Amino acid sequence: MTTKKTIIVWFRRDLRLTDNPALHWATQQKRPVLCVYINDTQATDDNKPGGASRWWLHHSLLALDSQLSNCGNKLHLISGSPDESMYKLVEATGADTVVWNRRYEPSAIALDSAIKKHLIDIGHTVTSFPGNYCHEPWQVQREGKHPYKVFTAYWRASLKHATLAVAGADTDTATDGPEKILCYRGKGCSGVNIESLGLLPTLPWADQFADTWQPGEAGAAIRLQQLLDGAISHYSEGRDLPAVEGTSRLSPHLAFGEISPRQITAAIADRVVSGELKDDDNTETYRKEIGWRDFACHLLYHFPHTTENPLDVRFKKFPWKKNKKALQRWQQGNTGIPLVDAGMRQLWQTGWMHNRVRMVVGSLLIKNMGIHWLEGARWFWDTLLDADLASNTMGWQWVAGSGADAAPYFRVFNPVRQGERFDPDGDYIRQWVPEIAKLGKKTIHAPWTASDTELANAGIVLGKTYPKPIVDLAQSRKDALERFGTIKSHA
Prior knowledge:
It is a single chain. By secondary structure, the protein is mainly alpha-helical. It folds into 3 domains: 1-129, Rossmann fold (3-Layer(aba) Sandwich); 132-175 and 217-302, Serine Threonine Protein Phosphatase 5, Tetratricopeptide repeat; 313-485, DNA Cyclobutane Dipyrimidine Photolyase, subunit A, domain 3, CATH 1.10.579.10. Helices cover 44% and strands 6% of the residues. The chain is built from 19 helices and 5 strands. It has a 5-stranded parallel β-sheet, with helices on both faces. Strand 2 (33-40), helix 2 and strand 3 (75-80) form a beta-alpha-beta unit. The protein is globular. The termini are far apart. 47% of the residues are buried.
């Protein structure tokens, strides 16, 4: 009687059972499956999760293990170097096949390629699958196989594919999660418990995250349902209003692969077909947001140096400022500019920030304060629950004006005008900057313009109970344009 050898499914940023191509393939083989997550203790900066992401990862792994238990399996946790850990595991268990869903960070590509080559060289089968994007980063390109640098052109090209589905899938619909996963129960896989991974932050700042978020596939399903039942019907306008629930808030779930973009687009399509949703500007705008995520991966894959360096080479000579105290004030939400402070405090307390506000806080740091965009990218990487290298890199280079399809450098977001336009009643600011909550809607976006009487009636002493502005917005904009003038003629 021939013993069926084990298949190792290596989970990474795909912590779900539903529409998981690697897991789906493994379960179809009717062989024992060993589900593994390796906590990479040797990870480089581009693949090492920040503090907020570690909190999410801890709880997402717990959720995944619970799901696997319901299917008769379990999650095997290892802490160490992924290559050495995988080689030892294969040898100890006698597994002859390893499968995973692909990653696209520069260091992850190099690591996965090395592991795959080594295992194949010693006679094992290794198969990788596309699982977390609508299109592979090399799939949508210009003639001559040149990458796109403009989203509109990329989006139009991506629509030429039959469907916004994971590339290489057999069908256009998401695969269901398995009801039963045959479990490997042999020797050689004594893992560690999740507490020993040390993922939870030692600072108490993450304690409030659980009030807002439910990591795991079930939490992702709830968020998707909320999107379909509410926000998507007015998404085109509502996504810009930070005081309302106008966005999907699916970004952390997508970042950890607790839901696939194919599941989301398929769910929207189902609602449109059933007549529960209109196929209008709202659904189209949301689909484009999914497309932007693909575009970010496309850029990272083709221009991996942009995680640290500008795509626009002129910015290599940009005269950035170094001001540690000013940077700390920005990080702490104490700039004296209400919309910016509201966003930075929302980020610290919830691990998330509204996308419109992300652009505003980034613009202030880079252009008005003159601080390198990398400082902002690194802070976001550590404090965002949805931290994703591709999206984070693209977003910050976009605001800086140094990336692909970037906002021109002379586009400086005015946080007062942005607040007046997108938070007209000041509700968002009042929620996150309560010390100025008693100001009227005409002055809450710029307390320094309020009269002494109004400030006194609101209990505000500028410079004491609330900071004076860290910069003069008009003058700092002028200074930023002058600094750009020193490099704009360089090729």
